[in-house]
Amino acid sequence: MTKPPRMTTSAGAPISDNQNSQTAGERGPVLMQDYQLIEKLAHQNRERIPERVVHAKGWGAYGTLTVTEDISKYTRAAALQKGKQTEMLARFSTVAGELGAADAERDVRGFALKFYTEEGNWDLVGNNTPVFFVRDPLKFPDFIHTQKRHPKTNLRSPTAMWDFWSLSPESLHQVTILMSDRGLPTAPMFMNGYGSHTYSMWNRDGERVWVKFHFKTMQGHKHFTNDEAVQVIGESRETYQEELFGTIDRGEYPKWRVCIQVMTEEQAKQTPYNPFDLTKVWPHGDFPLIDVGVMELNRNAENYFGEIEQAAFSPSNVVPGIGYSPDKMLQARVFSYADAHRYRLGTHYEALPVNQPKCPVHHYHKDGQMNFMGAKTGNVDAYYEPNSFGGAQEDPNVAEPPLPVEGTADRHNHRNGNDDFSQPRALFELFDEGERQRLFSNIAAAMQGVPADIAERQLALFDQVHPEYGAGVRAAL
Ligand code: NDP
Ligand code: HEM
């Protein structure tokens, strides 16, 4: 074995004794000049950073996106050209539980991806479900409050959850998925991922299409029943971490088939549903999946905190050839994530190794706490723009094609004319008898203790999806 390195203070001075505090006499007290002790205690006090306000419990790994098909007619994105391989990072998570929550809990799973492309980081911060509980971002904090602890009891509140859901019929689609088998996968590699929102792509000719991203598990779907999950959690609260880390450590690399759905701007004007509504999918029959390539996870992080906890994913991270859409929820997320990162990790979170782009970075942000990167402008005399000192300049070639918008500025009622029932019905009709029975019993279990008037309001919504849905849950209750 090689000789271990010499231990030092964080200022680099060698340490002679790391076992005994400096004291006046054998029995103490401790001397204030024992800076080594003070440094150690002070560092320990600063080990925790705020956990993510949602999606706090997570598991991640690095991997590769390999593009096997030619989709250049849709996008100019460098990372999406046929034959291209791009390094990436994935972080999976539950939504509601805190950092120490058990892994095998029924909840939506986060499916966050960061692709280190040659034209900047492209993040796709999706879930294992293609839709979401709300369609207007003004409702997101309210929804999340129903999933977190009650302010008085400090317990999760089924009453709050079903009160909100029963007053928000747009949640039916996602609630049905959450309460179905897919609401409790056995480990991250046994679930699909979805970009969920509608995004856009544009090609070298400046032509735009709308797209949805799909990541289809190549390991097959595996789920726990509620009863199985109780057993699993009784034995280990860390099953996802164990399984994802262990699988990759053994060299068994999980893979996902990467696909897109594409809708033209013309088609988007004709669909019977709003194609920018996050509570809706685009039916595969109308918008078939188009293969793009394969995503493989093949490397564990060396340091969980540094690379998974400090990872900062944001829907604002798009690259030339990929853009946003009018989806109201996506618009809010473009703001919210970078704001969360500045609070959770600090102003220069993008300079942390895990978040650093693997392409040149040039901007005119200046100074700030913990700025260890210096000027990124391209020339030390060019700390403003425009300048005559060869500082970084804009590139009009990467401009997104203009998007026509119309309409009145108003608080438009997002429930007006929206059909919240057809798509959950289509899903319900896909379920076989066993899946339906488990759906009913999962909902009944989740509704325990909910006041009758709230439960009745929710049952009336299930009735509108499908009479057998309402009847089934009633019977299970
Ligand atoms: P299809 O029959 O073409 O597709 C059904 C989809 O449902 C497949 O993607 C399948 O995923 C997925 N699925 C199967 N069981 C479940 C479940 N328990 N929870 C969530 N997803 C499940 O039908 P359509 O495209 O016409 O859609 C019908 C319904 O399927 C939709 O209303 C929606 O609820 C659901 N769905 C649709 C998706 C879409 O993008 N069109 C995506 C996911 C769900 P897999 O192929 O991996 O088995
Ligand atoms: C995490 C806000 C909707 C997926 C977060 C975080 C915030 C947030 C603040 C914590 C970020 C951090 O500290 O790093 C919002 C808002 C939403 C919204 C305001 C709606 C208006 C959604 C939707 C999805 C989603 C629709 C999926 C389709 C995720 C994921 C994470 C996350 C996967 C964890 C990312 C990671 O692994 O670091 N969200 N969210 N969120 N959100 Fe959302």
Automatic annotation (TrEMBL):
<feature type="domain" description="Catalase core">
    <location>
        <begin position="8"/>
        <end position="393"/>
    </location>
</feature>
<dbReference type="InterPro" id="IPR040333">
    <property type="entry name" value="Catalase_3"/>
</dbReference>
<dbReference type="InterPro" id="IPR024711">
    <property type="entry name" value="Catalase_clade1/3"/>
</dbReference>
<keyword id="KW-0560">Oxidoreductase</keyword>
<dbReference type="InterPro" id="IPR020835">
    <property type="entry name" value="Catalase_sf"/>
</dbReference>
<dbReference type="InterPro" id="IPR010582">
    <property type="entry name" value="Catalase_immune_responsive"/>
</dbReference>
<feature type="region of interest" description="Disordered">
    <location>
        <begin position="1"/>
        <end position="25"/>
    </location>
</feature>
<keyword id="KW-0408">Iron</keyword>
<keyword id="KW-0575">Peroxidase</keyword>
<dbReference type="InterPro" id="IPR011614">
    <property type="entry name" value="Catalase_core"/>
</dbReference>
<keyword id="KW-0376">Hydrogen peroxide</keyword>
<protein>
    <recommendedName>
        <fullName>catalase</fullName>
        <ecNumber>1.11.1.6</ecNumber>
    </recommendedName>
</protein>
<dbReference type="Pfam" id="PF06628">
    <property type="entry name" value="Catalase-rel"/>
</dbReference>
<dbReference type="InterPro" id="IPR018028">
    <property type="entry name" value="Catalase"/>
</dbReference>
<keyword id="KW-0479">Metal-binding</keyword>
<dbReference type="Pfam" id="PF00199">
    <property type="entry name" value="Catalase"/>
</dbReference>
<comment type="similarity">
    <text>Belongs to the catalase family.</text>
</comment>
<feature type="compositionally biased region" description="Polar residues">
    <location>
        <begin position="7"/>
        <end position="24"/>
    </location>
</feature>
<dbReference type="InterPro" id="IPR002226">
    <property type="entry name" value="Catalase_haem_BS"/>
</dbReference>
<comment type="function">
    <text>Decomposes hydrogen peroxide into water and oxygen; serves to protect cells from the toxic effects of hydrogen peroxide.</text>
</comment>
<keyword id="KW-0349">Heme</keyword>
